[in-house]
């Protein structure tokens, strides 16, 4: 491919030099050649351009001689007959089809690379897979947790927190939905699947949050921003081998929003930036930052 690109570049240089020669010939003797001996100066300039054409021609010949001819002609199928069309409207179809073939080839190449990358970074949350006697795949994960164990983990959290109230609710069977009230600041609905957090909805303290509102966003922009951060933290604290610790760490992190409107940004020192308080909490230190300040 590199040799083919070099050949195309050499042909391009040759065409450019030939075009320059004809341009100089068409313009003839110009004023910049002066009054004395301008014919001789014009001939010297033309000789230099002609020598440049010869050099580019030798370069094209050497590069083309280095190319290996294809073992067989390219098979374009019935599309080769399109080149025989005489009307201008149909002649453009052939080049468009060739571009379509190139585009499809690139799609195949990029999809192959994306498949390899995704296989190296598995997005499944399950772990410990094995096969039973019938050969069916069985998956053991933190989803297979008893409701009593989930209640125990959440009750321990409610005992250790004074400003955060937890209400366990099961509108979808055995899987729990925990309504978290953080002071008089906000409320969050955390949907569990076993002991794994599946979804988080954050709303203001004065907004309703029941089974019909679990998937609707808050009408306040500040709590929509907080909900985006809770989704990022949900993925950060996920641990299939230590699910209890992951839930406790996540609850500790979300509890840091109890000073959402009273704690300034650690970077700029301001309470408001673009009319919003610091909605980002550092995942390790729990320090508040504005979204614009967290990466500064």
Low-confidence stretches: 126-140
Number of strands: 8
Largest sheet: 4 strands, antiparallel
Whole-Å distance between the termini?
43 Å
Give the neighbour order of strands across the main sheet.
3-4-5-6
Strand content: 15-25%
The dominant shape is: elongated
What is the tally of helical segments? 6
How does this model look, in words?
Its main location: nucleus. GO terms for molecular function: transcription coactivator activity. Keywords: Nucleus, Transcription, Transcription regulation. The protein has 296 residues and is of the alpha+beta class. Among the domains are: 2-65; 147-260, no CATH class. The protein contains six helices and eight strands. It has helices at residues 2-27, 38-65, 88-120, 147-160, 221-236, 243-255; strands spanning 127-131, 137-140, 164-172, 175-182, 186-193, 196-204, 280-281, 288-289. The strands form three sheets. It has a four-stranded antiparallel β-sheet. The chain has a two-stranded antiparallel sheet with strand order 1-2. It has a two-stranded antiparallel ribbon with strand order 7-8. A hairpin with a 6-residue loop joins strand 7 and strand 8. Helix 1 (2-27) runs antiparallel to helix 2.
Layout of helices and strands, plus pairs?
Elements: H1 2-27, H2 38-65, H3 88-120, E1 127-131, E2 137-140, H4 147-160, E3 164-172, E4 175-182, E5 186-193, E6 196-204, H5 221-236, H6 243-255, E7 280-281, E8 288-289
Antiparallel strand pairs: 1-2, 3-4, 4-5, 5-6, 7-8
Helix pairs in contact: 1-2
């Amino acid at each position: 491919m590199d040799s083919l690109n070099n050949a195309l570049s050499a042909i391009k240089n040759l065409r450019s030099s030939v075009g320059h020669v004809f341009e100089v010939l068409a313009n003839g003797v110009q004023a910049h050649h002066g009054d004395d001996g301008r014919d001789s100066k014009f001939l010297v300039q033309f000789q230099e351009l002609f020598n440049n054409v010869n050099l580019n021609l030798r370069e094209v010949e050497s590069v083309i001689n280095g190319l290996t001819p294809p073992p067989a002609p390219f098979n374009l199928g019935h599309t080769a007959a399109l080149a025989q069309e005489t009307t201008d409207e149909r002649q453009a179809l052939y080049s468009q089809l060739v571009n379509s073939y190139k585009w499809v080839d690139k799609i195949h190449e990029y999809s192959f690379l994306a498949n390899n990358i995704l296989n190296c970074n598995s997005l499944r949350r399950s772990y410990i897979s094995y096969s039973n006697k019938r050969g069916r795949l069985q998956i053991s994960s933190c989803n297979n947790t008893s409701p009593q164990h989930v209640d125990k983990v959440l009750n321990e959290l409610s005992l250790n927190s004074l400003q955060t109230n937890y209400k366990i609710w099961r509108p979808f069977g055995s899987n729990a939905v925990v309504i978290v009230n953080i002071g008089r600041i906000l409320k969050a609905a955390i949907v569990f699947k076993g002991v794994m957090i599946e979804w988080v909805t954050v709303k203001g303290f004065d907004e309703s949050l029941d089974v019909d509102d679990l998937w609707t966003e808050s009408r306040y922009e500040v709590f929509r921003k907080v909900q985006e951060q809770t989704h990022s933290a949900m993925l950060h604290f996920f641990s299939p081998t230590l699910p209890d610790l992951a839930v406790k760490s996540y609850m500790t992190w979300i509890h840091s929003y109890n000073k959402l409107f009273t704690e300034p940004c650690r970077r700029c020192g301001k309470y408001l930036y673009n009319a919003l308080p610091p909605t980002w909490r550092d995942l390790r230190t729990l320090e508040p930052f504005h979204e614009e300040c967290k990466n500064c």
